[in-house]
């Protein structure tokens, strides 16, 4: 069994704790659902935000999910590239999986679809 990375991203309209947590939770749930991932399959998750998202740690959303209490999480700041997508939360989920790289379903929601339109709706 190998380790695969599942990419995901979502945007928020406002930098409010409730919205950041809800959006992150929505993204994580969609990522595991589309890839048939169980909490024990997750090796680690790195979550980044753009500079304008700073009201809370988005990783708090994972603590709302059943069975995720032992999933290693880390939050970081995205590189502030001029002209990049604002108000964005990105996730790199590392999972233990038998799937090949082309079987992984990456998830981009809301305005984050613009980041990788080539990976959207591959199902």
From TrEMBL:
Keyword list, A-Z: Amino-acid biosynthesis, Aromatic amino acid biosynthesis, Isomerase
Pfam family, one: CM_1
MF terms in GO: chorismate mutase activity
Keyword Amino-acid biosynthesis appears in the UniProt entry: yes
Record-listed E.C. numbers: 5.4.99.5
UniProt keyword Protein transport present: no
Gene3D superfamilies: RutC-like
Reactions catalysed according to its record: chorismate = prephenate
InterPro entries per UniProt: Chorismate_mutase_AroH, RutC-like_sf
Protein name: chorismate mutase
């Amino acid at each position: 069994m190998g380790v695969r990375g599942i990419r995901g991203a979502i945007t928020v309209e406002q930098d409010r704790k409730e919205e950041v947590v809800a959006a992150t939770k929505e993204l994580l749930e969609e990522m595991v659902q589309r890839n048939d991932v169980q909490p024990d399959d997750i090796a680690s998750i790195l979550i980044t935000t753009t500079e304008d998202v700073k009201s809370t740690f988005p990783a708090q959303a994972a603590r709302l999910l059943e069975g995720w209490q032992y999933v290693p999480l880390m939050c970081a700041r995205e590189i502030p590239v001029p002209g990049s997508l604002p108000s964005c939360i990105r996730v790199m989920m590392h999972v233990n999986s038998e799937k090949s790289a082309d079987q992984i379903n990456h998830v981009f929601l809301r305005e984050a679809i613009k980041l990788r339109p080539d990976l959207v709706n591959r199902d």
